[in-house]
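SAMPLE LOG
Freezer: B-3
Tube label: C17
Construct: single chain, 180 aa
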Amino acid sequence: MYLKSNFTALTLSTFLILGTAYPVSAGGHISGASAELIGNDGTVIGSATVTKTPHGVHVYVKVSGLTPGAHGLHLHSHGLCDTGDGFKSAKGHVGKVEGAHGMMNADGPEPGDLPNIFVAADGTGEMEAFTDLVTVDGGAHSLLDEDGSAFVIHQGPDDHITQPIGGAGARVACGVIAAQ
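STRUCTURE (predicted):
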């Protein structure tokens, strides 16, 4: 599947990256980072990784304990996940551009836009994607910049066009992205 934004959906058999070490490149840049995802009650519900590739960033997310169905998933601009404020501490999307949310938006997407994560009837879900709109460390829209970044999972699906978050609803999980 290829979209205008250079996002590519990959099969889960393509990469196995959980549990691997992330080396530092020759320039001192981090090539990978991860996040422990927590629900609104503060319990760990999953994990996420971002890995630098020759042509962008590979994203992998695995969760349990969420309601079945599609959930919006975004990269947020601040590395804070305060359960007390419903994860609003993570602020808006990485590279927020007013009116440009969504991979099906003619003016988008924003760098923080990602495909939905799909959760099965047993509450587990996995998602794998590729983006060239962010970097792990250094450059435009770096996930490990001064104020950090976070993964945020929403209550419902992102329709990839409605402003500002694709109609995805409340934030139900969050994870601060940290270098490994």
